Amino acid sequence: MSELYMMVTVSDRNQSRRFLSFYKDFGISVVMTTMGKGTAASEILSSIGLEAAEKALQFCFVTGETWTKVKQALEKQMKIDVPGSGIAFIVPMASIGGKKTLKFLVAGHHFEPEEESTLKETTHELLIVVANQGYTEQIMDAARSANATGGTVIHAKGTGMEKAEKFLGVSLAVEKEMVFIVTRKEKKNGIMKAIMDQVGLDTKVGAMICSVPVTSTAGMRLMEDA
What we know:
Blueprint lengths: L3 E9 L3 H9 L6 E7 L4 H6 L6 E10 H13 L10 E6 L2 E2 L2 H7 L18 E9 L3 H9 L7 E8 L4 H4 L7 E10 H15 L8 E7 L6 H5 L1
Antiparallel strand pairs: 1-3, 1-4, 2-3, 2-7, 5-9, 6-8, 6-9, 7-8
Helix pairs in contact: 5-7
């Protein structure tokens, strides 16, 4: 049995290509990259000889075995422990929407799926939808048809999309949208099915979906009771 994680890397934008090249050495080629901005206080930045910088956030999926190897190399080769070099962390996956999507996201790495995430006591999950750019409304219409309340959209650029033809049987655009939806665990399957059926890989939207466990929430009660 294996464990699957979403790995998130935060680095300076000018280092994003370096990290992409580094991850390819470990067979990690399907990566979603979006942009952000660091918010560390100026006195903290000054103390480590840095200035405020634009950030790159990279999302990909790794097995537990791959993460062990990547973590060691991040510290030894990329010197990620040096302040200002970046950070990387993993979040355990709860579910993936379809076998084809799973094979594509892990890009052929050996993976034997477990029954569920180890965080079985959680009451909410974060759904992550990756789709071609420009179809947010269609995605949310599908989600709302299964009683989702709302979502947050991030524009991203995907690498490794050329692998889609091999693993998915379809071609995917490089420009992507990532839609984040927090929902109660009992609603998850219905929302995932609605998205897969209405705007899934066999449509022009090309949506893939997965979920990660959420250990606690605030501000969801009124939305869910509405």
